[in-house]
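Exercise: predict the structure of this protein bound to adenosine-5'-triphosphate.
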Amino acid sequence: MRIVVEKRDNKSKSAAVLIPLASFAISLILGAMVLLASRSNPLQAYSAMLNGAFGNARRFQYTIVESIPLLMCGLGVGVAFRLKFWNIGAEGQYVWGAIGITWVMQFWKFLPVPMLLPIGLLVGMTLGAVWAGVPGYLKAQWSVDETLTTLMLNYVAIGLAEYLYISAWKAPLGNMGTPEFPREAWLPPVWGKIHSGLYIALAFVVLLWFLLYKTRWGFELNMIGKNPRAARYQGVSIKRNIVLAMLLSGAICGLAGSMNTAAIAHRLTKGVDGGYGFTGIIIAWMAGLNPFASILVAIVMAALTTGADALQIAMKLPESMGEVLQGLVLIPLLAGSIFVEHKLKVIKKEAV
Amino acid sequence: MKKLSVLLVLLLLSTTLMFAQGGKEAAPAAAGPFKVGVIYITSPGDMGYSYMHDQGTKAAEAYFGDKIEVIRMENVPENDASARAMEQLIDAGAKIVFANSYNYQDYMLQVAKENPNVYFEHCSGYLSNENMSNYFGRMYQMRYLSGMIAAKMSTTGKLGYVGAFNTPEVVRGINAFALGARAVNPKATTTVVWTNTWYDPSLERQGAIALLDQGIDVIAQHQDTTEPAKAAIERGKYAIGYNADFRSVVGSDNVLVSPMWDWGNYMIPAIESAMNGTWKSQAYWGGLEDKMVHLSPISPLVPKDFQNVVMAKQAEIANGTWDVFWGPLKDNKGAVRQEAGGKMADDKMLTMDWFVEGVIGSVK
Amino acid sequence: MNQQTQQIPVVRMEHITKHFPGVLANDDVSLELYPGQVLALLGENGAGKSTLMNMLVGLYRPDSGSIYIRGELADIHSPQDSMALGVGMIHQEFMLVGNMTVAENIVLGMRELPFVPKIDQIRAKITELSKRYGLQVDPDAVIHDLSVGEQQRVEILKLVYRGADILILDEPTAVLTPGESRDLNKIIKKMLSEGKSAIFITHKMDEVIEFSHKVQVLRKGKTVNTCDTAGVTPQDLANMMVGRDILFSLDRCAYNPGGVKLKVDHVTVVNPLGSRPFLDDVSLEIHRGEIIGIAGVAGNGQTQLTEAITGLLHCTSGKIFIDGKDMTNSTPLQVIRAGVSHIPADRGANGVVGDMSVGDNLAMKKYRTSEISRGVVIKRSFLRAFADKLIEAFVIKTPDQDTCVKFLSGGNIQKTILAREIDSCGGVLIAVYPSRGLDVGATEAVRQNLILQRDKGNAVLLVSEELDELQMVADKIAVMFEGRIMGIRDVKETNTEELGMMMAGATGVRRNA
Ligand SMILES: Nc1ncnc2c1ncn2[C@@H]1O[C@H](COP(=O)(O)OP(=O)(O)OP(=O)(O)O)[C@@H](O)[C@H]1O
Ligand SMILES: [Mg+2]
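Solution:
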């Protein structure tokens, strides 16, 4: 008897839904094994996580708040990924968004206060777009590998933010933070902890869905992503679209950063590089670059983070266990995506 | 495919059922132990800052026995996640919450305002509220003593200091160290490198190596790992520890001494007052006299009679007749920063952004 | 022949049925191949030939039916399984890994390969085999850098290296020049003389007659006829395939050219990697209502000429005019907007996006127009109606327009491109090997379509390697050799012999230069 991996004759629609579910179940089982090995009751642990993420209105709000930047970054990198442009610089673009809005809030004193927030968000978006446009242009013009440039630019952005909140823009009182934004310029809440960034994020879901699936530009991106040479033969400019897609991608990630800063920290401070940009990559991938699916995936990923707190509290497990469980969710899901296109076959030796 | 879907649905159903059962939280018993929440920036396993805080937590646990229950959360980032962590601790029944890193303060203040029945203790910041205190310790006093020992043992008179960030706390420590060194050797210099991180083994080591390469023979540090000290010892040079007693952690007498914290001496009375309802908001900055800080045992390599000199200085600080930043003091550009004949005011120390004479480097 | 039938067949497929979503690709097909024999498998595009063979090499599994190799029931799950039984296949679309070397490709995926292969031994064996069969290739060359003909040799080497003695060749000559085809035929004959057997899929009737011992014809997934080759004519075969007579002659209006539509004026394109330029001072004029054929052995600048015109390749010097307007080094989109449509040579790589639907692929030119879009928004209902119209007009065999193009048969992929380009043609049609891989019926339709474009007053540039196709369709023939045009002849005033000589580099007597 042996097991072989065969390509499916045709992509199975039900497999596309069932396989992620099955993968999720497998990861729960794997996680249970790890938990058992560390002498914890897996059921209790999982219920603690679920409870920690959704147990009451407050926790639910925290989970949603956490999912907003994740969703935005997932949408952002998803645009670039359509072109098979591996933008792993969302983290840096997010940080630029935070820098941008801080710049406006702190130094654009000539603006009337009510204008600070909208202009700040726009500037954050623009800076994020520029930060993504640079590797886009380098790739389009001189085929400079984008994985390397976008990754390196993350560290530049984070370093710059550090320099700003530690010294250049530091608040007179205290350390490692710029002055707090004027209260009137904060992103207003809509329900408890949940801020109005939620609406912006959802608006982007719809907008991107429309742009990617309904417009000529989305059609062109699809062509380039699936066969760039054929796209070029059809008159689609690859260079121009790479730069455009990267600008949009960076703008969304940048907006995520400026939104979150205006809603939560209200200043540029240590902790801006919260890893949303990196998790966004996973979200885009797991959602199959579909904006609507990204909502669900972002909530799941956020719940894994918020739920992990509960592991420490209720189960007295070390914080690292939360990370292990998060990792365990990812591996089968990513591995599972192979089986949407392939199937396993067990071959019993037949009598010859 | 059908069979598989049925199986999956069953599996999902059964897991949700199990969740539903396990999901019932044990209702917080009214007369259970008093719950204490603790939030750490790193993991106590780091042998650094959070480790020392956890020693304090452990001291409190030993002191109160089963009258309290401590819930720890580690590696909590300094953003919204910290507010979430505090709320989860409160949900779990915590009546007092400690958090040990500077940038938690905004979030703590916010949560404190929303939870007036819980006491909040923030370490290293300046914000407070009716139900939120901030607390810290005068570590600079110990830095001064360690600077004396470093200068005594140095053959070149060139000392090095690996600093994390240019915050007033770190700057103050460097200045105290340099002043201590100059008290023993008026020509001693202290060269500073910044790593811009609290915790990064390789960056910290690189910083130390850069200093050692300049002929520096004692390395002090304001970092959370033992790497700078190890780098010095590997080259046969001396090191000054921090947070933990590096001499026993690293296992070398070349670690001359380590300034250490005693957070338990703050946490125990704070918890006690919270339990009996006498808790009061304060901005606390305790020193040697309050037993917030102390020196580890000094390495046998340091001559006994000099150890006595250090101990005499320590006694002077403890009884309040003298303190480290005592005028006249000049900064390393020659400007007078403290007039002769007096102790520097706390607020000047808390916002210190200049280096004293004898420090090579810049705060920016 | 008789004694062969006494033997056990090396391949016996019995009652094979295979469904794909929406298609019955093979319907109770049986097939027998005897040792030393060549079986020609014929059928229209989408008749199920490739599918049947793919099941023999384990790429697909039959829904029902069984396969016997040398009389024994075989359970084939993968190409490795079939290779272990000595069955190897050269696919219609090559399956080489572009950025790996010849040697690496040849041993890639071999089951008995040690973890660290002994590359010297492999190289030696490749060299020995290539000498034996006259298949010159450099084992260290990277696939990307090889011509189609060379890539095909690599595919064959791969089979013989692995010891295949039952060869399956899926339209091996479709992409080859006549010369290369002759070489390939020699190689195959040599292999047969060593006792190997072969199944041969082709749309070229003369090859069937020259080569095969037996013919089996599929139509719509069913076997419609099996007979000995001796005695059949191309007409008979075409008739069996399509179920009607093929005319092999075309209707056309009288040659009555209009003004100059496309003018290529002293264009040179340097080759950054080679010594000789891709195009060397090429000049050409195409009038409205005229078909200019470009003849020449592949690799002499034909594709570069079309790419220079369509804005895909940068002209180093010279000018290109469309309707008198200077279009030199315009972007591909500008050229498209000027009314030029282009059927590229390498259909899989450049012509379609395999992972997009047939409908989307058909719309890839017109999606910019109001026929499909309103402003920047693509109207799905418009697109669907448009695609259905083309599928019907060009008889594209597909379950529906939502099927991914890559699941179509090779010939139907080609028809998808033809439909899109011919439909969107706005004055100039550039067709490179447009009938490659098409069955006789479809080939006839394409040629008729090219002529129709000409009759409508469009300028047509037809690149082909088949002289008879050019002579049948074109009004004038230009011959290219080493990036230069050796001469342009009126079809009526030239003959195969003269063209052949020009293709080999002779300038010939310039009569009207
Ligand atoms: N993987 C697949 N998924 C869905 N349909 C397929 C797939 N492969 C082939 N088909 C369909 O099966 C039918 C037979 O295709 P096949 O490739 O066998 O034709 P063919 O005889 O080789 O044609 P051609 O001469 O054009 O190469 C076609 O209608 C094709 O669309
Ligand atoms: Mg085929």
